[in-house]
Every structure is written in C-alpha cells, then in structure tokens.
Amino acid sequence: MNFCIRDDDTSFFTSPEELESVYGELSRWGPVSLAIIPFCRAGRSKGIPERYKEHWSVHPLHENPAIVSYLREGLAQGRYEAMLHGYYHDEPNTHEEFEKGNDLERRVIEGRSYLEDLLGTKVRVFVPPRNRIGKDGLRAIARAGLQLGGIAGVRLGWPIRSWKTWKTWSKISHWKRHGGVGVPWVLDLGDHREISGNAVTPSASIQRNRRAFDAALAADGVFCAATHYWEMRMPSLRQDEPSVIEHLRWLAEQARDHPRVVWRSVGDILSDG
Fold first, then answer.
1. Separation of alpha carbons 169 and 163, rounded Å
2. Which domains are delineated in the chain?
3. What is the pLDDT of residues 221-244, one digit of tens each?
C-alpha cells in the first residue's frame, strides 16, 4: 500500500517554525506534500492571521524569504514536495477560485511556473482551494499536465460523455454500497488522475480513518492523509478522540512501521497511477 500526507495552505503567512514544529520529525520518516499558495489573497480562510482577514490584499510567497529558504532546503532534501494550491486561494465573490472562470488555465500555468522557479522544484499536482473544483478548473489542470489532489466527481466536473467517468463512478459506487470506507485507489480519468484525501482535522474521526487505512491496506491501494499545519494543536471535536497532531502521528506511525506500506509523495503516487 502507498501512504502519503497532503498538507494545505502553506503561503506567505506561514513561518518555518510552524511547519518544522509539525513536520520536523515526520518529514524524516517520509515526504510530506505541501499544497502551496503562490499569491495568497488575504480573505476569509482560517489560515489567514486575524489582522489580515478580509483585507483582500495579495501577498506573493517570495515576500517571505524565511519560508522560501526553508522550503528550498526541505525540497532539496526530499522531506517535502511542492504542489500548487490555487493561485490566490480566496476570492471576494461567492464561488471558489477554481470552480469556474476564463483565466484558470493562465493561473495554473503562471502559478506553477512561479513556484518552480522560486523553489527550484517540479510541481506535478494541483490541490483546489477548499477542495472545490469545477469543469473549467479540471480542464485547466488537465491541459497543463497536472494531476489532482482530491476527487472532483461527476457533480463537480468529470466529463459526462467519457466512458472513464462512468467506469470510475461505477467502481466507487460498488465499493460504497458494499461498505467500503474511503476511496483506496488512484482514479484515472484519462486526461488526469485523482487521489482522495482522508481528512485529519478537528471534526475528523480517527475510527473512520483506521477503517479506511485498513481497507486501503487490504486492497493494496493508497491512503492519503489530508490536513492543515495550522490545525495541528487543536483538540478533536469528538469526545474521547485524540488531538489533530496525535491523530496524524498515529497514522504516520502505522505507515512507518508496517512492512507492506510504502510512504511516498502525492506526486510520485499519482505519476505512477
């Protein structure tokens, strides 16, 4: 089974100390894939400091040289992978950034090029802000040759005339109907691949993730833990369940110690299909 960690929202507002406090040890067990915002707009996201919220100012990653230096070093060491997490991330209107729009392909291409040049790395995966993407967004990332961190699904953008759409939908539906937990495979939609994230957040259930981990192991599939560094110190909203960092660490320990689990980056898993 393949295992990976996807962490969203690294941006201008992120400090090296925040990432290191969470992933300093874990990223030496296996790579952590960071979904990075190239030009973070100070909107309503929970990861934005309160004093900046809803100012709608734009903050390029390069204006925080400390985080850039930290990321370059971690990427060079293989501790981290860089993924593209939108362009601005937050929009002042009612829809999410990559649900629809005429300039999404430009944003994908420019955002990827910016991160690659700034960080000296290769970007292979796009993670949509707030896990919301539409047909326009999917078309943009596919044309740019990127894979998707997350699952769009039929309602959010899979092409309804594609036989791969309905083959994939049928496989997932059969899995769910028979009690399957999570989606323990990489999904091949023809022009791009997708990987489901298993939430590790204050509202997430560790019991559910234990079942999903075991199901992926039995299927010789994939388990992707999806989280946010800025939530790590938060307690669980579920009674008698561990904090977010304890939840993630438990999953990471299972991946590190199990002889049939290979810890890889999101990009490596999606590239191999």
1. 10
2. 2-272 (3.20.20.370)
3. 999 999 999 999 999 999 999 999
